[in-house]
Design goal:
About 45% of the residues are buried. This protein is about 40% helix and about 20% strand. A seven-stranded mixed sheet has the order 8-7-6-9-12-17-18, with helices on both faces. The protein has two domains: about 1-135, Four Helix Bundle (Hemerythrin (Met), subunit A) (Up-down Bundle), CATH 1.20.120.420; about 145-365, Translation initiation factor eif-2b, domain 2 (Rossmann fold), CATH 3.40.50.10470. Helix 2 runs antiparallel to helix 3 (about 80-90), helix 2 runs antiparallel to helix 5 and helix 3 (about 80-90) packs antiparallel against helix 4. The mean pLDDT is about 95. Strand 17 (about 345) and strand 18 form a beta hairpin. By secondary structure, the chain is an alpha/beta fold. The longest helix has about 40 residues, at about 115-155. The structure holds 5-S-methyl-1-O-phosphono-5-thio-D-ribulose. 5-S-methyl-1-O-phosphono-5-thio-D-ribulose (MRU) binds near residues 55, 56, 57, 169 and 245. 5-S-methyl-1-O-phosphono-5-thio-D-ribulose (MRU) binds near residues 54, 55, 179, 245 and 332.
């Protein structure tokens, strides 16, 4: 996608030195556009854990490049060093399944090579493939999802379609295009009038900081709303469709996504607003049936709730928003059970959020 007219991905190898991986450091958006250079597994693990990069697809791509960096840094006990790097990267964030998926894919491919040089070459190619695939699958999600928006637009005689989204499942959460935003960008680019209600998404504010920024850069009309406003808007007919992303969706259709998603799904159901989840196949967990019981929910530092940060006088400042001695809890994700999900928008098309329909699109995962 474009930043000030120039095309960027969220992560890429340096043009002249492929031992250096470059990424957009999202901690400074929307106020500063900072590119970070990462050279070691430690640095990549830190970038994922501290959310310089975040979002399911991008976490997967970053882990893919992290494993490539591990092959460059591994010593004489190559296999042990690689296993340690895999464990270190896997421990950074627990909910997005793309992380483990990318690491396992790397381990399998690297394991097939004989020499260290060949392992390094394979790891680099695999990291690039993971990133390219992520971008391409998101582009296809846009192609399928835009048909939903087109249909709503026709039902409204061409009036603006209002989409509500939560968190950031935009191009910043992937390598390019985004999942939830891909149909929105495709609609906007195709001349379908579309407007986005952007949930601010406390405590990290991925909506008001990241989704707002990227929609604005692309020229898509949007309005930031406080997290609790969605239900009210739905009751008053101001939301035509909800489209969110996911960090992990079971093959039975339960959806883990940023905390607060479940409440939006409940409000959508009560108001007969369609609730769609957009995801590339790398965000399916093909091993677990029960999302509520089995998906690990990340708990982050209470500081993120106790403090807010923003831009003041040319500087990024952090302010305390709770009483000095307040305890705070910071659950990163929640699970929306399948019965609240109207459909899943994937790179292969749209299916229902149930085992039968998902496996019809992805028969290679049937057992
Ligand atoms: O904690 P984050 O920012 O890494 O969470 C990821 C998200 O942005 C959302 O949950 C998103 O909707 C799914 S990831 C495409």
């Amino acid at each position: 996608m474009k930043v000030r007219g120039q095309h960027y991905r969220t992560i890429w190898p340096n043009d002249t030195d492929s031992r250096v991986i470059q990424l957009i450091d999202q901690r400074f958006l929307p106020h500063r556009f900072v590119i970070e250079e990462v050279r070691t597994v430690d640095e990549m693990a830190g970038a994922i854990k501290e959310m310089h990069v975040r979002g399911a697809g991008l976490i997967g791509a970053a882990a893919g490049y992290g494993m490539y960096l591990a092959t460059l840094g591994a010593g004489t006990s190559f296999e042990d060093d690689l296993a340690a790097a895999a464990a270190q990267l896997k421990a950074t964030r627990p909910t997005a399944v793309n992380l483990a998926w990318a690491i396992e894919r790397q381990l399998k491919n690297i394991g097939a090579a004989e020499s260290v040089e060949e392992k390094q070459r394979l790891a680099f190619n695999t990291a690039r493939q993971i990133a390219d695939e992520d971008a391409e699958y998101c582009r296809r999600i846009g192609e399928h999802g835009v048909e939903l928006i087109r249909h709503i637009s026709e039902q409204k005689d061409g009036a603006t379609v209002n989409v509500l989204t939560h968190c950031n499942a935009g191009w910043l959460a992937f390598v390019d295009h985004g999942s939830a935003t891909a149909p929105i960008y495709a609609a906007h680019d195709g001349g379908i009038p579309v407007h986005v209600w952007v949930d601010e998404t406390r405590p990290r504010s991925q909506g008001s900081k990241l989704t707002a920024w990227e929609l604005g850069e692309h020229g898509v009309p949007y309005t930031v709303i406080a997290d609790n406003a969605g239900g009210h808007l739905m009751q008053h007919g101001k939301v035509d469709v909800v489209i969110v992303g996911t960090d992990r969706t079971t093959y039975t259709g339960d959806v883990a996504n940023k905390i607060g998603t479940y409440l939006k799904a409940l409000a959508a159901k009560d108001n007969a607003v369609p609730f769609y989840v957009a995801l590339p196949s790398s965000s399916f967990d093909w091993n677990i049936r029960n999302g509520l019981k089995e998906i690990p929910i990340e708990e982050r530092d209470s500081e993120e709730v106790n403090y807010a940060d923003g831009w003041h006088g040319g500087e990024q400042v952090k302010v305390r928003v709770t009483p000095q001695t307040s305890a705070a809890a910071n659950f990163g994700f929640d699970v929306t059970p399948r019965q609240f999900v109207t459909g899943l928008i994937t790179e292969r098309g749209i299916c229902q959020a149930n085992e039968e329909s998902i496996l019809q699109l992805f028969p290679e995962h049937a057992r």
